[in-house]
Amino acid sequence: MKRSRRTQDRLESLYTLDSYMDKAATNAENIKRMKRLLKVAMQFSLTDRQREVVRLHYLEDKKVVEVAEELGISRQAVYKLLRISRKKLQKLKNIF
């Protein structure tokens, strides 16, 4: 059976959407997994202040300005704490 071009385009769109949804579900699962791993890694390798900044910025999706205001520190201090935390977590990642 020959399909019209319009029907063919619709079917391709549905296949693309289905594939996208599968990838989105997988990505959502990966994001949840990574957040759980981050929480565990933070407990063992970061100071309390670093842990708080990472939690607010990455896990609660707050902007640097919001983190700075909430903790009563400068934006530069937040950036520095995030940089140091990323370095520590990167080293930990390389071990595993």
UniProtKB/TrEMBL annotation:
Coiled coil: none annotated. Residues 46-89 form the RNA polymerase sigma factor 70 region 4 type domain. GO terms for biological process: DNA-templated transcription initiation. Pfam families: Sigma70_r4_2. GO terms for molecular function: DNA binding; sigma factor activity. This is RNA polymerase sigma factor (Sigma-70 family).
